[in-house]
UniProtKB/TrEMBL annotation:
Keyword hit for Cytoplasm: no
Species of the source: Pseudoxanthomonas mexicana
UniProt keyword Cytoplasm, yes or no: no
Gene3D superfamilies, alphabetized: L-arginine/glycine Amidinotransferase, Chain A (3.75.10.10)
Keyword terms: Hydrolase
InterPro entries: Peptidyl-Arg-deiminase_porph (IPR007466)
Protein name: Agmatine deiminase family protein
Length: 343
């Protein structure tokens, strides 16, 4: 049988979004009530357009989460709970990276190391294997890859081009050259090209510059990216340099990408620590783009930029200020499942 698998873009049809419900044994314990509000709002937004699969640590947590969602008038016909063990809820990085060949699916199970050993992640690293034994998926197989890679570190246009950052991949694999990493990523993810950004970072991000906090592909050879227009801000020079990196990139047929810069939110400081309030950390689903909102005047301006980049989708703001306390945002807690994968 020929291997014609490819890595679909996030804006291609989906069967569901996969998340994990926060609980008191995760790092959310200190602010659990606040983050639960974000999860309720997120599930309510997703289920307007498509199903959501929610990992829960035990039956009691499922009962509690279901009660919270019913009280918010969520369409429970669109919700499916599955039991799973997890250290935390960042499923963008611990969940499956799915390739497809028609109606066949390959779930890539890369090593998850807690972002280079920063946090305990042994249960998260087993999550893909655990999910694969639940009759959750259809017509698939799992390929385990002994290589540290997180889903938030890679971005594809669905047509053979991958976008990533040198800082993150170099931090995970300091002895590998760019050429070696390019070959590995292209081989496993079925890409014809790998584009690298050499600049870009956010204070309060502990992923070593995941691409999904900085720059995202959009349909029609476009890149949406987090800009900074405040020359007094510590991020200004680096994000200006990243914008120049993006301007120098070319499409597969040699044209510049259409660029959509996102506005810069005011600094969010928590106990003296700057948090990473990135608008680039949005989630694309069937018929909509769910964007993180931070209670900032720039929220509506960011929604307007996304409306131009995704003119055929509704832009839905989800309150995510609680998420950035733990160094991530909306995209980080989700993983889309391509259409046809869900059993």
């Amino acid at each position: 049988m020929t291997d014609a698998f490819r890595f679909p873009a996030e804006w291609e049809p989906q069967s569901a979004v996969l998340i994990a419900w926060p609980h008191a044994d995760t790092d959310w314990a200190e602010r659990l009530a606040d983050v639960e509000e974000t999860y309720v709002a997120l599930v309510a937004a997703i289920t307007r357009f498509q199903p959501v699969v929610i990992c829960v640590a035990d039956d009691d947590l499922q009962t509690y989460a279901e009660a919270r969602l019913r009280s918010a008038r969520v369409d429970m016909a669109q919700v499916r709970f599955v039991p799973a063990e997890y250290d935390d809820t960042w499923l963008r990085d611990s969940g499956p990276i799915t390739l497809r060949d028609g109606q066949r699916f390959k779930l890539l199970d890369f090593r998850f190391t807690g972002w280079g050993g920063k946090y305990e992640a042994s249960r998260d690293d087993r999550l893909v294997g655990e999910l694969s034994g639940m009759q959750l998926f259809h017509n698939y197989f799992v390929q385990s890859v002994d290589f540290a890679l997180e889903g938030g570190a890679i971005e594809t246009d669905g047509a053979g081009t991958l976008l990533t950052t040198w800082q993150c991949l170099h931090e995970r694999h300091p002895d590998a050259s760019r050429e070696e990493l390019t070959g590995k990523l292209a081989g496993w993810l079925k890409q014809q090209r790998v584009l690298w950004l050499d600049h870009g970072y956010l204070e309060g991000d502990d992923t070593d510059a995941h691409i999904d906090t900085l720059a995202r592909f959009a349909p029609g050879d476009a890149i949406v990216y987090q800009a900074c227009d405040d020359a007094s801000d510590a991020h200004y020079a680096e994000l200006q340099a990243m914008a120049a990196d993006i301007a120098a990139l070319r499409t597969a047929d040699g044209r510049p990408y259409r660029a959509f810069p996102l506005p810069w939110a005011r600094p969010v400081i928590d106990d003296g620590r700057r948090l990473a309030a990135s608008y680039a950390n949005y989630l694309i689903i069937n018929g909509a783009v769910l964007m993180p909102a931070y209670g900032d005047p720039a929220d509506d301006a960011a929604a307007a930029v996304l409306a131009r980049a995704y003119p055929d989708r509704e832009i839905v703001q989800v309150p995510c200020r609680a998420l950035i306390w733990q160094n991530g945002s909306l995209h980080c807690i989700t993983m889309q499942l391509p259409a046809g994968l869900l059993g």
